[in-house]
Write a structure and sequence with these properties.
With about 190 residues, the protein is α+β, with helices and mostly antiparallel strands. About 35% of the residues lie in helices and about 25% in strands. It is built from 6 helices and 8 strands, in the order H-E-E-E-H-E-H-E-E-H-E-E-H-H.
Length: about 190
C-alpha cells in the first residue's frame, strides 16, 4: 500500500471511529480476488455495530478514494442494515468495485444488485444519495491530501428506480420520506 493510500485509509477509519464513538468498529480487509483486484487493490470494509448514534449496523467502504480521487477529492460509501452479516460486507465491496471499475457513482446514481438485497426482499437496486441517517458529520471526511464524501447506498426496488427515471431523484426521495420507510427493513413495501 502506498503512503497516500495508507494515510487515506487511516484517515477514513479514524473519521468513522470518531463519528461512531461508543460503537463497535471492525476493519475487514476485503480481497476482491485476482480478476478484480486491479480496480481496487486495498479495499477495507468498516463494520459498525449498534450504539448511541444508531440501533442498526453500518458498513463503510475504505479504498475507493485512493483509486478514483481527482484533485484530492473522492467518494466512499455507507450502507445501513438490520444485522451483522457477511452479505452486507460483500455488498459494500460490490459497491466499491462497481464505482472503481469505471461506473463512477455519485449522488442521484443507482446500481443494480442483480438479486434481492436479502432473500425475499423486493429491494434489488441501490440508490446513491446523501447519508441522511447520519448527516454531514459522517459525509465529510478531511484527508491529509484532500477530502472524502461518504455517500449512502440505500436499497430500493426496481419500481422505485423506474419512478426516479420518469419523475426525478427528488420526487423519489420525497416519496421515500413521506412513506417514512425504515431503511434497514429489507422487507419494506415499495413506495410506488
Amino acid at each position: 500500500m502506498s503512503d497516500a493510500r495508507g494515510l487515506a485509509a487511516e484517515a477514513i477509519e479514524a473519521h468513522v471511529r470518531a463519528f461512531f464513538v461508543g460503537h463497535f468498529v471492525e476493519v475487514i480487509a476485503f480481497d476482491l480476488g485476482p480478476e478484480r483486484r486491479e480496480a481496487i487493490a486495498d479495499l477495507r470494509v468498516l463494520v459498525v455495530g449498534p450504539g448511541p448514534r444508531s440501533d442498526g449496523w453500518a458498513y463503510v467502504s475504505a479504498g475507493c478514494w485512493a483509486e478514483t480521487e481527482k484533485g484530492g477529492h473522492g467518494l466512499e460509501f455507507v450502507m445501513t442494515a438490520p444485522a451483522r452479516d457477511q452479505r452486507f460486507i460483500e455488498l459494500t465491496a460490490m459497491i466499491a468495485y462497481y464505482h472503481c471499475a469505471g461506473h463512477q457513482l455519485d449522488v442521484e446514481h443507482s446500481m443494480p444488485i442483480g438479486e434481492p438485497w436479502v432473500p425475499g426482499s423486493a429491494c434489488d437496486h441501490l440508490l446513491i444519495c446523501l447519508p441522511y441517517l447520519h448527516g454531514p458529520d459522517l459525509e465529510n471526511c478531511r484527508l491529509p491530501e484532500g477530502h472524502v464524501r461518504i455517500l449512502w447506498a440505500l436499497p430500493v426496488t426496481a419500481a422505485e428506480i423506474e419512478f426516479r427515471r420518469s419523475q426525478g431523484h427528488d420526487a423519489l426521495e420525497q416519496r421515500l420520506d413521506d412513506a417514512g420507510i425504515i431503511p434497514t427493513d429489507p422487507f419494506r413495501a415499495s413506495v410506488v
